[in-house]
Write a structure and sequence with these properties.
Strand content of chain A: 15-25%
Structural class of chain A: alpha/beta
Largest sheet of chain A: 6 strands, parallel
Helix content of chain B: 55-70%
Largest sheet of chain B: 6 strands, parallel
Number of helices of chain A: 8
Number of strands of chain A: 8
Strand order of the largest sheet of chain B: 3-2-1-4-5-6
Oligomer: heterodimer
Distance between the termini of chain A: 33 Å
Radius of gyration of chain A: 16 Å
Number of helices of chain B: 27
Structural class of chain B: mainly alpha
Largest interface: A-B, 24 and 19 residues
Distance between the termini of chain B: 101 Å
Strand content of chain B: under 5%
Chain lengths: 205, 625
C-alpha cells in the first residue's frame, strides 16, 4: 500500500466547482493526505521542514492544481523553489525523493483538441508539463502521465462532475493499492485514460 | 562672610563667567579660556573684586572637578578599563615617570635642592584633567584615538596621586603637618592609616555594588525627580568625603563610584542630574584658578616663570610625542595627544599645599611654580588652536581607533516608552541583531528588563539632555512608543527641535494623534490598534467561511485602501485642531463618515481574477488556461 500526498494549490478554491468535486472525492481515502497549500500558507511563508517531512512520509506525490498559463499557481512554484532543496531533493546527498512516484493532476478550461499541435495551445498537456517532468527526474523520481480534466467551464450542473470525481478517486486508489503495474501506466497518455468519460462523452483521440 | 557678601560674590563670579564665556565662544575659543579670563579679570590683578577668599571658593569649586571624575566614571565600564590597561599603565605610567624625572632634573639645574626638585617634578608631571577633558569634549575629540589615549594617561595620573601624596611628606624636612588645612586632610601613612585607606576603598566598592542600586530603586519609586537628584548628589558627596577623610583623592573616590554605577539602569538619569552641577562648579573652579594667578609674583619673576612654562610645555609635549610613537599613535591623534596634555594640572596646587605643610617645598619656589602651572593652564587651550590648524593643514593620516567608543553608542535605535508597543518593536529589532537603547519611566519593568541584560534606562524621554546622553545625535532612529498623545507630542517636538537629523518613528493612539504627528514631519507612523483589529478581522472572516488566502487578501486590500486614503481621511483634523471638546467630537464624527464613504469605494477582487475563460469562448476576458 502506497501512501499518497496531494499537494493542492488553488488561490480561489471558493470559486472552483471542478476542483471541489475532485478533492472531495478523495478526501476520505485511507493513506491519502491532502495538503491544501493556499489554506496553509496564505502568507506564502512555506514551512520547509514540515513540507519535507510530508514528502518523506509519502510514496506518491501529486501536484494538483488548475492550469494557469501552462503551469501552476504561484504558491506551487514558491513551494518548489523552497522545499526541493539541494542536498534534500537533488544533488549527491539529495536522495530523499528517490524512487517516489510523481504526477500532475490538473483542471483546465481548454478542450482536449486545444492541446494539440493544431490547437491554439500548440502543445500537448504532457509537453507543457515538461518542467514538472524534468524536476521530478532531477529528484530521481518516477514521473507518470497526468490526470487531466478538460473543458471545466462546459461542465454545468452537479451531475456532470460525478464522473470526473469518481474517476479521480479510482486513479488515486489504483496508485495507492498498486493494482496496475507502472509500465502499463506509463503507456497511457493521461492517467485517466479508459477510466472515464468527459462531459458525458467518451474521450476522443 | 555674611550671606549678603556671599551672594554679591556669587553674582560677581557669575557675571564675569557669563560675559567672558560668551566672548570666548564668539571668538571660537574653548570655554575654559573664558573662565580663566574671568578669574584674571575679577581677581587681584585687574578689577580686584575678589581676593583672599578666593582660596575658600577654590576649595568649594574643586568639587566640580570631583563631579567631573564621577561623570567620567559613569561612562567607563570596568571591562573597558581592563581592556585599556596597556594604555593606562603603560602609556600613563611611563609618562608620569619620565616626565617626573626630566622635570626634577630641570629643577635641579635651576638650583633647587634634590628633594624639592623631586616634588616639583611630580607636581609638573600631572596634567589638568579638567582642562583636557573639557577641551577634548568641546572639540568632539573624545572618541578619537588621541582623546582616548589622553584619557588613559589622565586616569593613571589620578591613580598616581596616591603614591605621590604618600611620598611628599617623606621628602619633607620633617615639619609636622597640621591636619585639616587644605586638601590632604589627615593623610596618615602609618599602618593604621593605610588600613583605613584600603577599608574606605573596599567600602566604596561594596556600597556601590550592594547598597546604591537598591537606594536608587527606592527613590525612583517615589517618582520625584528632585529626590532622585538629591540621591545622586548624596552618592557623589559621600564618596568624596569618605576618600578625603582617609587622605585619598576625592576625585578618585567618585571616579570609582561612577564606575560602579556605569552598568546600572539609572546611569543616564544620574548623569543628567549631576551634569548641571558639574558644569557650574567646574566653571567656577576655573574662575578661581584664574583669580589665583598672582600677577604680582609673575611680574616680579616673569623671566623665570616664562622659562618654566616654556620648559614645562616643551618637555611634556616632547615626552608625549616620543611615547605616542612607541604606542602606535600616529598623525593627527599624536599631535593632539601631545599638546592637549602639555600643561600643569590642578593637582599641582594640591601637592604644593601638601609639600608646604611638610616642608618639602620652599614657599617662594612654590608660588613661582604654582604661577607657572596656572599660566600653563591658560596657555594650553590657546596652544591647541594653532596645533589643530597645523594638524588639519598637513592633512596627516588619522590613525585607526584601537579602542571601543567611550561616549554614547553611535548608530543605535532609541526606543522611548517600553510598554507593549515599544516592547514588541524592540524585540523585533533585537531578534534581527540591532542595538537598542530603551528609555522608560516604569520602575519595575526597567529593573526587570535590566536583569535580562537588555539596555534599559530609567528616565523621561521628554528630557532633551537625557536623550542626548542616550545618543540621540547619532541614533539611526528614535521610536516614540509612549501611550499618551500629549506626552508623545512633547517628546516629538523636543526631538525635532534638538536633533533635527534623527528620524522619528511613532505610534499613533488616534487619528487626531496621527494627524499631529504628520504635522511634525514624522515619517513612519502606525496607528496602534488598526493592525491588530485587521488581524482579528481576518481570523474572523476565516471563521465565517472564507478561505485562508481569501481572508488574507481581503485584509491586506482593506489596509492598503485605508492607507491610500489616509491623507484625505486625516484632513478632517486640519480644520479641527481646536481645543474645545465639542470641536473634537464634531471632527471625530466627520472622520467616521469620511471612512465609511471611502469604504464604499473600495474595489473588490476583480471578477476575472483567476478565471478560466478560454480564447474560443466569446464572453470571457482574460484567459488563464
Amino acid at each position: 500500500m502506497r501512501r499518497v500526498l496531494i499537494n493542492f494549490a488553488h488561490p480561489a478554491y471558493q470559486k472552483s466547482r471542478a476542483n471541489r468535486v475532485l478533492i472531495e472525492s478523495v478526501r476520505d481515502l485511507a493513506n491519502v493526505t491532502i495538503n491544501d497549500l493556499y489554506e496553509n500558507y496564505p502568507d506564502f511563508l512555506i514551512d520547509v521542514d514540515r513540507e519535507q517531512d510530508l514528502l518523506r512520509k509519502h510514496d506518491v506525490i501529486v501536484s494538483h492544481h488548475p492550469m494557469y498559463w501552462y503551469s501552476a499557481p504561484a504558491l506551487m512554484k514558491e513551494w518548489q523553489d523552497l522545499v526541493l532543496e539541494f542536498g534534500f531533493a537533488y544533488g549527491d546527498e539529495g536522495t530523499a525523493l528517490e524512487g517516489k512516484i510523481a504526477f500532475n493532476a490538473i483542471t483546465t478550461g481548454g478542450a482536449y483538441e486545444a492541446y494539440t499541435a493544431e490547437g491554439y495551445n500548440q502543445f500537448t498537456v504532457r509537453e507543457l508539463l515538461r518542467p514538472f517532468e524534468q524536476t521530478a527526474a532531477l529528484c530521481r523520481m518516477t514521473y507518470i502521465p497526468p490526470y487531466v480534466l478538460h473543458s471545466t467551464r462546459k461542465l454545468e450542473g452537479k451531475d456532470c462532475f460525478i464522473e470526473p470525481g469518481s474517476c479521480y478517486r479510482k486513479v488515486i486508489t489504483e496508485l495507492r493499492d498498486g493494482t496496475t503495474n507502472l509500465p502499463e501506466i506509463q503507456m497511457r497518455e493521461y492517467l485517466n485514460d479508459g477510466l472515464m468519460m468527459q462531459a458525458g462523452l467518451p474521450v476522443e483521440r | 562672610m555674611s550671606v549678603e557678601q556671599t551672594l554679591i560674590a556669587a553674582a560677581v563670579y557669575l557675571i564675569a563667567a557669563l560675559v567672558t564665556v560668551v566672548i570666548a565662544k564668539r571668538l571660537g575659543l574653548a570655554s575654559i579660556i573664558g573662565y580663566l579670563g574671568a578669574g584674571v579679570l575679577i581677581g587681584p590683578a585687574v578689577l580686584k573684586f575678589v581676593g583672599s577668599e578666593g582660596e575658600d571658593v577654590m576649595h568649594f569649586a574643586e568639587f566640580g572637578v570631583v563631579m567631573m571624575l564621577f561623570l567620567i566614571g559613569l561612562e567607563v565600564q570596568p571591562k573597558k578599563l581592563w581592556s585599556m590597561r596597556r594604555s593606562i599603565f603603560g602609556l600613563g605610567g611611563l609618562q608620569v615617570l619620565i616626565t617626573t624625572l626630566l622635570m626634577a632634573g630641570a629643577a635641579r639645574l635651576f638650583g633647587a635642592p634634590w628633594n624639592e626638585s623631586f616634588v616639583i617634578g611630580m607636581m609638573l608631571a600631572l596634567s589638568s584633567t579638567a582642562i583636557v577633558m573639557q577641551m577634548l569634549d568641546e572639540k568632539g575629540l573624545l572618541k578619537s584615538l588621541g582623546g582616548q589615549s589622553s584619557f588613559s594617561v589622565l586616569l593613571f595620573q589620578d591613580l598616581a596621586v596616591i603614591p605621590i601624596l604618600i611620598l611628599v611628606p617623606l621628602l619633607g624636612s620633617g615639619v609636622a603637618h597640621a591636619a585639616g588645612d587644605g586638601h590632604g586632610g589627615g593623610m596618615d601613612t602609618g599602618p593604621i592609616g593605610l588600613l583605613k585607606m584600603l577599608g574606605m576603598v573596599v567600602g566604596i566598592i561594596a556600597a556601590g555594588r550592594l547598597l546604591v542600586r537598591p537606594l536608587f530603586r527606592l527613590v525612583a519609586s517615589t517618582g520625584l525627580r528632585e529626590a532622585f537628584t538629591a540621591a545622586a548628589l548624596l552618592v557623589v558627596i559621600l564618596a568624596a568625603v569618605g576618600m578625603h577623610a582617609v587622605g585619598l583623592s576625592a576625585a578618585l573616590g567618585t571616579f570609582l563610584a561612577g564606575m560602579l554605577l556605569a552598568d546600572s539602569e539609572y546611569r543616564h538619569e544620574i548623569e543628567v542630574d549631576i551634569q548641571p552641577f558639574k558644569g557650574l562648579l567646574l566653571g567656577l573652579f576655573f574662575v578661581t584658578v584664574g583669580a589665583s594667578i598672582n600677577f604680582g609674583t609673575i611680574a616680579g619673576n616673569w623671566e623665570s616663570i616664562s622659562l618654566i612654562v616654556a620648559c614645562l610645555v616643551a618637555i611634556k609635549a616632547g615626552v608625549l610625542i616620543v611615547l605616542a610613537r612607541f604606542f602606535g599613535i600616529r598623525g593627527r591623534d599624536r599631535l593632539i595627544f601631545s599638546f592637549a596634555l602639555a600643561q600643569g594640572g590642578e593637582f599641582a596646587f594640591v601637592i604644593s599645599t601638601f609639600a608646604l605643610q611638610s616642608g618639602a617645598l620652599d614657599p617662594d619656589r612654590a608660588s613661582v611654580i604654582i604661577s607657572a602651572v596656572a599660566l600653563s593652564m591658560l596657555v594650553t587651550p590657546l596652544l591647541m588652536i594653532p596645533v589643530e590648524r597645523a594638524a588639519d593643514k598637513l592633512n596627516l593620516r588619522k590613525s585607526e581607533p584601537e579602542m571601543d567608543e567611550m561616549e554614547g553608542k553611535a548608530g543605535n535605535v532609541i526606543i522611548v516608552g517600553f510598554g507593549r508597543f515599544g516592547w514588541t518593536v524592540g524585540r523585533l529589532l533585537r531578534a534581527n541583531g540591532f542595538d537598542t537603547t530603551v528609555l522608560d519611566l516604569d520602575q519595575t519593568s526597567v529593573t526587570l528588563l535590566k536583569e535580562h541584560d537588555i539596555p534599559v534606562y530609567y528616565g523621561d524621554g521628554a528630557r532633551v539632555d537625557l536623550l542626548r546622553s542616550a545618543g540621540a545625535d547619532d541614533a539611526r532612529a528614535i521610536v516614540v512608543a509612549v501611550n499618551e498623545m500629549e506626552d508623545s507630542m512633547v517628546i516629538v517636538r523636543g526631538i525635532r527641535k534638538n536633533f533635527p537629523d534623527t528620524p522619528i518613528v511613532a505610534r499613533a493612539v488616534s487619528m487626531r494623534h496621527h494627524h499631529a504627528l504628520l504635522q511634525e514631519g514624522v515619517e513612519i507612523i502606525e496607528q496602534e490598534v488598526f493592525g491588530a483589529a485587521l488581524d482579528l478581522g481576518e481570523s474572523l472572516l476565516k471563521m465565517l467561511g472564507y478561505r485562508a488566502y481569501q481572508a488574507a487578501r481581503a485584509s491586506k486590500k482593506f489596509k492598503k485602501h485605508e492607507i491610500e486614503h489616509r491623507r484625505e481621511l486625516l484632513e478632517v483634523w486640519d480644520k479641527e485642531e481646536a481645543k474645545s471638546l465639542f470641536a473634537r467630537e464634531r471632527a471625530r464624527a466627520d472622520q467616521m463618515e469620511a471612512m465609511l464613504s471611502a469604504d464604499e469605494e473600495m474595489p473588490p477582487d476583480s471578477h476575472e481574477a483567476w478565471s478560466t475563460g478560454e480564447p474560443e469562448e466569446e464572453s470571457s476576458g482574460a484567459a488563464t488556461g
